[in-house]
Amino acid sequence: MKAAVLHSENHFIYEEIDIAPCQDDEVKIKVIATGICGSDTHKMTGKWKYPLPAVMGHEFSGYIVEKGKNVTNAAIGDRVVAIPFLPCNDCEYCKRGQFSLCEDHGMVGSKSFGGFAEYVNIESSNVLPIGDMEFEEAAMIEPLAVALHGVLNIHPRVGDVAAVFGVGTIGMLTIQWLKIAGAKEIIAIDLSDEKLADARAMGCERTINPLNEDLLEKINEYTNGMGVDIAFECAGSKITQEQCLLITRKQGKIGYLGIAYSDVHLSEKAFENIFRRELTLKGFWNSYSAPFPGEEWTKSIEFIKNGRIKLKELISHRFKLEDTQKAFDMMINREEKYGKVLILPNEE
């Protein structure tokens, strides 16, 4: 099959590779759409930690073209989304159903070959049916489930005022889930006026660009000096990771979805707020719960199907499989404004 093979940091070669036979408990997916995750581009500018050569891509959908003899939950022709996380099912956390905390998990797209390829073999327990959902939308179920994992576990209350730092894909999906969960008002915070305009179009009542406005002054203005009930950090910036602690009201809650890519040093004021305001801080990793893969995935599929979640509006670019290098160069070098970027290995 053809694949975009990673040979070193941000060095992809479009080439022919062998795909292993489909094992007894596996299905073979013909990949139609694969998303590029924000973490993928960060891995290209840092240190790749996994075996090389590699085939990335952990957000993908397609249909089944082959299945092993033991597979009973899927059939050839089924339209499916892939669940890239492979829990060991043996560690203490897996036995508790806390799969996101698995101590020895596999991961399609890093530890094993992923969706920047024409086909992927995966255990049949790691696919869910999508019915007639568009494949491009289905390729965004994984990040949608990540956002829902955070929102479900921060336990928002009807009428909450929330702030979302960073309105890239995860931020925009978090905004939509907060709306569904009953947030009265959402304040989007980003350095891009264009992204803030997108957030307003998605239903954010207020926006703040800290390059042009004083963040604390605007938060105080919008909340009558109280601060927000919930702050979500979706930017993965050491600056915003601290700012969450400055804008949240007493006994408010902070959810960290963005990955820390450098050391985070807190000011005295930010650290004091944790205990003086009795803040609750929660980190969220991946998107899984029991029964695997969890309600984060099943509810995501349900809400897409009933039209409650907007996904296609977030897609900005589509690239052929052979142009995977161009896609990463565009994103890493910020050659164009982009939202969600998809690779289409098998255009149909």
Structural summary, described in words:
The protein is of the alpha/beta class. The chain folds into two domains: 2-140 and 311-344, Quinone Oxidoreductase, Chain A, domain 1 (Alpha-Beta Complex), CATH 3.90.180; 144-283, Rossmann fold. It has helices at residues 38-45, 92-96, 135-138, 141-154, 169-181, 193-201, 215-222, 238-247, 268-276, 295-305, 324-332; strands at residues 2-8, 11-16, 26-35, 59-67, 79-82, 85-86, 106-107, 119-123, 127-129, 161-165, 185-189, 206-208, 228-233, 248-256, 280-283, 315-320, 340-344. Strand 14, helix 9 (268-276) and strand 15 (280-283) form a beta-alpha-beta unit. Helix 4 crosses helix 5 (169-181) and helix 8 crosses helix 9 (268-276). The longest helix is centred in the middle third of the chain and has 14 residues, at 141-154.
Keywords for this structure?
single chain, 348 residues, Rossmann fold, 2 domains, 7-stranded mixed sheet, 6-stranded parallel sheet, 11 helices, ADH_Zn_CS, zinc ion binding, oxidoreductase activity
Write the layout of secondary structure elements.
Elements: E1 2-8, E2 11-16, E3 26-35, H1 38-45, E4 59-67, E5 79-82, E6 85-86, H2 92-96, E7 106-107, E8 119-123, E9 127-129, H3 135-138, H4 141-154, E10 161-165, H5 169-181, E11 185-189, H6 193-201, E12 206-208, H7 215-222, E13 228-233, H8 238-247, E14 248-256, H9 268-276, E15 280-283, H10 295-305, E16 315-320, H11 324-332, E17 340-344
Parallel strand pairs: 10-11, 10-13, 11-12, 13-14, 14-15, 16-17
Antiparallel strand pairs: 1-2, 3-4, 3-8, 3-17, 4-5, 5-9, 6-7
Helix pairs in contact: 4-5, 4-10, 8-9
